[in-house]
Write a structure and sequence with these properties.
With about 350 residues, this protein is mainly alpha-helical. The chain has 13 helices and no strands. Helix 1 packs antiparallel against helix 13 and helix 3 crosses helix 4.
C-alpha cells in the first residue's frame, strides 16, 4: 500500500545563503587575523608558555565562566527592550553580545554598533532604539564600576590601595579640563535641544528631517528604557548586574586554581586583580599588553613572582579573548544563515 501523504519539500540552499556564509565567515577570520597581528612575538610566546604551565580543567572553567557572563549581560540587556514593546529572543540577544565582543577585538566600541545591527537583521528591531538601550546600559556600567572602585579603596590595604590611588590620580589628572569640556558639551546640547524643539514643526515638512526626528525619537525611547521598567524587571536588572560583577571576580579565583603557586589565593585577591585588570582594559584596547602586566602587579602584592604572575595574567586574558572569538565567530555564521524574523 503506497503512502500518498504529502512530504515536506526539501529546503534548497540558496545562493544568497552561500554568499552570506562566506561574507560573515570572512569577517570573522578578519577579526581573528587583526587581533593576532597586534600581538608581538614575545607576547605570543608568553601566552603559549602560560598554556603549557596551567591546569587545563581550571582554564576550561574560566572559559565557561566567561561565556556565562556574556549570557547574563545579554539577559540584562534584553530587559531594556520590554518597555519598547519589542523583546528579542534570548538566543539572538546572546548572539548579538557575542558578536559585539568579537568586533571589539578589532576596533574599540565597534561592538556596540554591531550588536544593534545583528538585532536589526535577526529581530527587525530599529537600530536607533537598540543604540539607546546600549547607551543606557553603558551609563549604568560606568556608575556600577565607580561603586566597585570606591569599594576597592575601602577594602584594599597597603600596596594595593596605594597603587589604585596613584593609578586613578594619574588617570584623572586632567579632570578640571574634563569638567570644562563636559560643561561646554552640556551647554551645546541644551542649545541644540531648545533649537530643535522650537523649529521641529517647521522642519518636519522635509523628508530628511522626518528621518532624523525618527532616529532621535527612537534613540530617546531606548535611552530612557531603564526608567520605564516595572518593579520586578528593575530588581531583576540589578540582580543580573550584581551577578555579572560576581562572575568577573569568580573568574580570577578560578584562574588562580590553574597554577600551583596561586592556588592559595582567595576571593579578596581575585577582587584586587579584577580592579587592576579593569584599569588595564581602560589603558589599552581590550587590555592588550597592559592587562597581564597589571595582573602580575596585583599578584605581586600577595608574594607571587613575576613569571607566575605574568603567566596567570596572559592565560586569564587569552582565555577571555578566545571565548569571545569562538562564540563571536559561531554566531556570525548563525546570523548569516538565519532567516530574518517576520
Amino acid at each position: 500500500m503506497q503512502n500518498n501523504a504529502p512530504t515536506a519539500p526539501k529546503r534548497r540552499i540558496a545562493l544568497s545563503d552561500v554568499v552570506k556564509f562566506v561574507v560573515f565567515f570572512g569577517i570573522g577570520l578578519f577579526f581573528i587575523y587583526w587581533f593576532l597581528l597586534k600581538l608581538s612575538t614575545e607576547q605570543r610566546e608568553a601566552i603559549w608558555q602560560s598554556f603549557l604551565d596551567a591546569n587545563w580543567w581550571w582554564v576550561a572553567a574560566v572559559v565557561a565562566e566567561t561565556a556565562l557572563s556574556h549570557y547574563v549581560r545579554a539577559l540584562r540587556w534584553r530587559l531594556l527592550f520590554k518597555p519598547l514593546g519589542s523583546v528579542p529572543s534570548r538566543s539572538n540577544t546572546f548572539g548579538s553580545v557575542a558578536v559585539a565582543y568579537l568586533s571589539n577585538l578589532a576596533f574599540p566600541r565597534l561592538g556596540e554598533v554591531t550588536r544593534c545591527a545583528t538585532l536589526k537583521t535577526s529581530e527587525n528591531i530599529p537600530l536607533e532604539k537598540s543604540l539607546g538601550t546600549v547607551v543606557t546600559e553603558r551609563l549604568f556600567d560606568v556608575l556600577a564600576f565607580a561603586l566597585v572602585l570606591l569599594l576597592g579603596l575601602l577594602v584594599m590595604f597597603g600596596k594595593a590601595k596605594d597603587w589604585l590611588y596613584d593609578a586613578l590620580s594619574e588617570k584623572f589628572a586632567t579632570l578640571p579640563r574634563l569638567w570644562v569640556v563636559a560643561l561646554a558639551a552640556i551647554a551645546i546640547g541644551i542649545g541644540v535641544i531648545l533649537t530643535y524643539r522650537h523649529f521641529r514643526t517647521r522642519w518636519l515638512k522635509h523628508r530628511i528631517f522626518k528621518k532624523i526626528d525618527s532616529l532621535i525619537t527612537g534613540a530617546w525611547e531606548g535611552l530612557r528604557s531603564i526608567f520605564r521598567l516595572n518593579r520586578r524587571d528593575l530588581l531583576l536588572f540589578i540582580v543580573y548586574s550584581v551577578f555579572l560583577y560576581a562572575l568577573y571576580i569568580l573568574g580570577g579565583w578560578l584562574i588562580f586554581r590553574a597554577f600551583a603557586e596561586t592556588s592559595r589565593l582567595g576571593l579578596r585577591a581575585a577582587f584586587v586583580m579584577y580592579i587592576f585588570g579593569s584599569v588595564g582594559m581602560m589603558i589599552s584596547q581590550g587590555g592588550l599588553g597592559a592587562y597581564p602586566v597589571l595582573v602580575w602587579q596585583a599578584l605581586d602584592i600577595y608574594g607571587i613572582g613575576e613569571t607566575t604572575g605574568l603567566a596567570c595574567g596572559w592565560l586569564f586574558w587569552a582565555s577571555q579573548q578566545a571565548t569571545a572569538i569562538v562564540l563571536g565567530l559561531a554566531y556570525l555564521l548563525y546570523f548569516a544563515l538565519k532567516k530574518r524574523k517576520p
